Every structure is written in C-alpha cells, then in structure tokens.
Amino acid sequence: TQLLEQSPQFLSIQEGENLTVYCNSSSVFSSLQWYRQEPGEGPVLLVTVVTGGEVKKLKRLTFQFGDARKDSSLHITAAQPGDTGLYLCALIQGAQKLVFGQGTRLTINP
Amino acid sequence: SAVISQKPSRDICQRGTSLTIQCQVDSQVTMMFWYRQQPGQSLTLIATANQGSEATYESGFVIDKFPISRPNLTFSTLTVSNMSPEDSSIYLCSVGVGGGGQAFFGQGTRLTVV
Known about the structure:
The complex is a heterodimer.
Chain A: E1 5-7, E2 10-14, E3 19-24, E4 32-37, E5 44-49, E6 55-58, E7 61-65, E8 71-76, E9 85-93, E10 97-100, E11 104-109
Parallel strand pairs in A: 2-11
Antiparallel strand pairs in A: 1-3, 3-8, 4-5, 4-9, 6-7, 7-8, 9-10, 9-11
Chain B: E1 4-7, E2 10-13, E3 19-25, E4 31-37, E5 43-50, E6 56-57, E7 68-72, E8 75-80, E9 89-97, E10 102-105, E11 109-113
Parallel strand pairs in B: 2-11
Antiparallel strand pairs in B: 1-3, 3-8, 4-5, 4-9, 5-6, 7-8, 9-10, 9-11
C-alpha cells in the first residue's frame, strides 16, 4: 500500500492552461514536501508545508496543505513548457529520509 | 545547500557484472541516502549510509546486492552487484541539510543492464 497517493499520474495540457496535482494519504503528517525532477537531474525541492491549511505560493505555483494534514495540492496557473517535469510529493520519515508518492508526470505542450 | 556529484552519469553493463557508483558532496554530512528510480517511476530508498558504521537497508534491499561504503563524511559508493536487466534504473544519492529537512540530490546514474 502506497503511503502517499498522487493523482493524476500523467497529465498533458496546452500552454496557458491551469492544472492541479493532488497528494493524499490516510495518515496525518507533520510536514510534506513537493519536489520537481527534470530529465537527467535529481529532484529539486519546491516547498515544504507544515501547518494545516497552509498555502504557499512560488510564482505561478500554489501549494496547499489540508486542514487535517493528510493531503496536499499543487496548482499551476498559466502553465509554461518550462513547467514540464515529474512532480513528487514526499514526507520525511525518521532522520531525514524521504518517502515519495508515485509522482505526476506533467507535459506542457507549446 | 549542498552540491552533489555522481559518477558515472550513465552506463551500459552486461548482466552478471557489477557497477560501483560514486557520490561526492561538497560539505561534510552525517547521513547520505541512496535511492532507486525504476523506469517511469518514483524514487524508492535503498539504504542510509552513515560514516563509520554499516549502512541501514530498507525492506527489499540487501547488502549482498547493494553493498555501500562510507569512508568519510563527504563520500559514499553504492555497488550494484551481479546485475540483471531488472536492475536497469536511475540510482541517486542524496543528503539532507538543515533542520528543515531539505534534501539535495545528485544528478543520478542511469544504469542499463543488457
């Protein structure tokens, strides 16, 4: 059983459209992280959310942590081809090791 | 922050052989982590490597298949032993820096076993 369920797993949209990616679990987390991985690179941290109901913005990306701290979402406004990549949610277990969701492979078509 | 260099970046290997992947960090870190990313999939932790002690392996991964060395606080190696095509994956090393739990990753080693 996957601890973190991400959806959708694949998403292909046109440039300029909006999209939302979800990360859900049956467990409560103290914090959750979102990473983006581009081909040939390792994942890069986008944001860490800690407080239930928290909303963080990173340019056109908006991250939300659910009130019950069991789910999170990533919303991208006016998607650009540079947003293409694998988006991963992750939680920290124990001493700094990460457990990742299955990932959402996003393709933005020009 | 941390800058991580992995070598090789990619390799094609014959089944039955072994490959050692190197990971160099630009600062001293207590723990280093090795992940596997199978084709089209997410990352799965293989093991945690501490300097001066044996690595701690996750369920489904064993030392005989993935021996790890950690000779000092800036370097680690992962060996993929007796390879089969099922070992074809991207292998990534990672370190965690700071209290916020931010992880930094190397660029990965893309391994193809033929």
